[in-house]
Design a protein that fits this description.
This protein is α+β, with helices and mostly antiparallel strands. It is built from two helices and six strands. It has a single domain (14-119), classed as SH3 type barrels, CATH 2.30.30.240. The protein has helices spanning 87-91, 105-119, and strands at residues 27-29, 35-43, 50-54, 63-67, 71-75, 80-83. Strand 3 (50-54) and strand 4 form a beta hairpin. The chain is globular and about 35 Å long. Residues 21-83 form the PRC-barrel domain.
Protein backbone atom coordinates (compact mmCIF):
# COMPACT_ATOMS: atom_id res chain seq x y z
CA UNK A 1 0.00 0.00 0.00
CA UNK A 2 1.23 3.55 -0.62
CA UNK A 3 2.75 5.57 2.22
CA UNK A 4 -0.20 7.94 2.21
CA UNK A 5 -2.70 5.13 2.68
CA UNK A 6 -5.47 5.20 5.24
CA UNK A 7 -3.34 2.81 7.33
CA UNK A 8 -0.41 5.22 7.72
CA UNK A 9 -0.05 8.33 9.84
CA UNK A 10 0.15 11.62 7.94
CA UNK A 11 3.82 12.52 7.38
CA UNK A 12 3.64 15.62 9.59
CA UNK A 13 2.55 13.63 12.67
CA UNK A 14 5.12 12.36 15.16
CA UNK A 15 4.17 8.68 14.85
CA UNK A 16 4.88 8.84 11.12
CA UNK A 17 8.37 10.17 11.82
CA UNK A 18 9.46 7.15 13.82
CA UNK A 19 8.10 8.44 17.11
CA UNK A 20 5.48 5.78 17.79
CA UNK A 21 4.30 6.58 21.31
CA UNK A 22 1.90 4.38 23.16
CA UNK A 23 -1.42 6.13 22.52
CA UNK A 24 -3.35 3.83 24.85
CA UNK A 25 -5.63 5.90 27.06
CA UNK A 26 -5.54 8.99 24.84
CA UNK A 27 -8.88 10.75 24.38
CA UNK A 28 -10.17 10.63 20.80
CA UNK A 29 -11.94 13.77 19.56
CA UNK A 30 -13.85 14.15 16.29
CA UNK A 31 -13.31 17.01 13.84
CA UNK A 32 -16.55 18.57 15.09
CA UNK A 33 -15.06 18.82 18.61
CA UNK A 34 -17.10 16.04 20.20
CA UNK A 35 -15.42 13.31 22.20
CA UNK A 36 -15.57 9.83 20.68
CA UNK A 37 -13.89 7.84 23.43
CA UNK A 38 -10.39 6.72 24.33
CA UNK A 39 -7.77 4.51 22.71
CA UNK A 40 -8.08 1.02 24.15
CA UNK A 41 -5.20 -0.40 22.10
CA UNK A 42 -3.15 -0.07 18.91
CA UNK A 43 -2.52 -2.77 16.31
CA UNK A 44 -0.67 -3.22 13.02
CA UNK A 45 -1.69 -6.56 11.46
CA UNK A 46 -1.08 -6.94 7.72
CA UNK A 47 0.53 -3.42 7.74
CA UNK A 48 -2.94 -2.01 8.48
CA UNK A 49 -2.16 0.18 11.49
CA UNK A 50 -5.21 1.19 13.48
CA UNK A 51 -6.58 2.17 16.87
CA UNK A 52 -9.33 0.37 18.76
CA UNK A 53 -11.39 3.08 20.45
CA UNK A 54 -13.62 2.40 23.44
CA UNK A 55 -16.64 4.68 22.97
CA UNK A 56 -18.05 4.27 26.47
CA UNK A 57 -21.83 4.67 26.50
CA UNK A 58 -22.48 6.88 23.46
CA UNK A 59 -22.51 3.91 21.04
CA UNK A 60 -24.00 1.43 23.50
CA UNK A 61 -20.64 0.64 25.06
CA UNK A 62 -19.05 -0.71 21.90
CA UNK A 63 -15.61 -0.19 20.46
CA UNK A 64 -14.67 1.21 17.06
CA UNK A 65 -11.74 0.45 14.80
CA UNK A 66 -10.16 3.62 13.40
CA UNK A 67 -7.34 3.55 10.80
CA UNK A 68 -4.45 5.85 11.77
CA UNK A 69 -4.76 7.66 8.45
CA UNK A 70 -7.71 9.63 9.84
CA UNK A 71 -5.64 10.93 12.77
CA UNK A 72 -5.32 14.67 12.14
CA UNK A 73 -3.42 15.62 15.30
CA UNK A 74 -1.72 14.05 18.31
CA UNK A 75 -1.35 16.19 21.43
CA UNK A 76 0.95 14.29 23.79
CA UNK A 77 0.68 16.98 26.48
CA UNK A 78 -3.10 16.71 26.70
CA UNK A 79 -3.07 13.00 25.73
CA UNK A 80 -5.56 13.75 22.97
CA UNK A 81 -5.96 12.56 19.38
CA UNK A 82 -8.11 14.45 16.88
CA UNK A 83 -9.50 12.57 13.89
CA UNK A 84 -10.53 14.12 10.57
CA UNK A 85 -14.08 12.71 10.73
CA UNK A 86 -17.18 13.90 12.54
CA UNK A 87 -18.71 11.90 15.36
CA UNK A 88 -21.68 10.75 13.19
CA UNK A 89 -19.25 9.61 10.47
CA UNK A 90 -17.25 7.57 12.97
CA UNK A 91 -20.45 6.13 14.46
CA UNK A 92 -21.61 5.04 10.97
CA UNK A 93 -18.36 3.12 10.29
CA UNK A 94 -18.51 -0.66 9.77
CA UNK A 95 -19.41 -2.27 13.08
CA UNK A 96 -16.58 -3.72 15.17
CA UNK A 97 -17.77 -6.84 16.97
CA UNK A 98 -14.88 -9.06 18.01
CA UNK A 99 -11.14 -8.78 18.55
CA UNK A 100 -10.56 -11.35 15.81
CA UNK A 101 -11.70 -8.73 13.29
CA UNK A 102 -8.54 -6.75 13.99
CA UNK A 103 -6.67 -9.59 12.26
CA UNK A 104 -9.14 -10.11 9.39
CA UNK A 105 -7.82 -8.50 6.17
CA UNK A 106 -11.33 -8.50 4.64
CA UNK A 107 -12.85 -6.61 7.56
CA UNK A 108 -9.91 -4.20 7.70
CA UNK A 109 -10.26 -3.52 3.97
CA UNK A 110 -13.97 -2.73 4.44
CA UNK A 111 -13.14 -0.31 7.26
CA UNK A 112 -10.31 1.25 5.24
CA UNK A 113 -12.56 1.75 2.21
CA UNK A 114 -15.18 3.47 4.40
CA UNK A 115 -12.71 5.93 5.93
CA UNK A 116 -10.89 6.44 2.62
CA UNK A 117 -14.16 7.63 1.06
CA UNK A 118 -14.59 10.16 3.89
CA UNK A 119 -11.11 11.61 3.71
CA UNK A 120 -10.02 11.44 0.07
CA UNK A 121 -11.66 12.17 -3.25
CA UNK A 122 -12.08 9.28 -5.64
CA UNK A 123 -12.06 5.52 -5.15
CA UNK A 124 -9.85 3.75 -2.63
CA UNK A 125 -6.56 2.32 -3.87
CA UNK A 126 -6.90 -1.03 -5.60
CA UNK A 127 -10.45 -0.34 -6.81
CA UNK A 128 -10.80 -1.26 -10.49
CA UNK A 129 -11.62 1.63 -12.81
CA UNK A 130 -15.14 1.33 -14.10
Amino acid sequence: MPTDSIWSYAPELGPAQGQDPDLTGYTVVASDGSTIGHVDRQADPHAMRHLVVDTGVWVFGRSLLVPVGVVAAVDTGERKITVSCTRPEVKAAPRFRTDSETLDPGYLTTVGDYYWALTRPGPPPGTPAG
